[in-house]
Amino acid sequence: GNILLGQQxxxxxxxxxxxxxxxxxxxxxxxxxGANVPGADSRCLDDxxxxxxSYLRVARPEDTLxxxxxxxxxxxxxxxxxxIDSLQSLFDEWLQTVDNEDIYIHSTQVKVYPNPVKDILxxxxxxxxxxxxxSAQLFSADGRLLLQLPMSPxxxxxxxxxxxxxxxxxxxxxxxxxxxxxxxKIIR
Length: 188
Fold this sequence. Notes:
By secondary structure, the protein is of the alpha+beta class. The chain is built from 3 helices and 9 strands; from the N terminus they run H-H-E-E-H-E-E-E-E-E-E-E.
């Protein structure tokens, strides 16, 4: 773009993306760090930051608008705080929620969104005939059971508004025999 400091920013973005290891989300975040240079967006040089805002979105083929695999946004920051640094912090928190994401018994059984969550967490069956009856349980970081709801046949909504923001919680979906069907860290 014509607002970039120069070709060196594009080269840095490309090299960080190509040299990063891991899934697409990790590589994209690394690429953004390639632009984490004061004035990378030339409009921001006087402020000593790289850009005015930053975001990262990753969708899987089965995702729908509003339920993306990853959607992080830093629309603005306080003076002197770089949006890419703020995005990196959000990304690092998000990454902790997905490191064990694929431990479910049937990987196509449950979809949980959004994560991070503001108020309402949706737990959706992709094939409810496999596991009902079941319950959704939310635990604090120290293992206390905070919420437990029976799962409905299609989707269950958990109201997390009363819970403290900025914390990590553990969601478990269990069948009536106590068998773990899904476990995932949730950021509120």
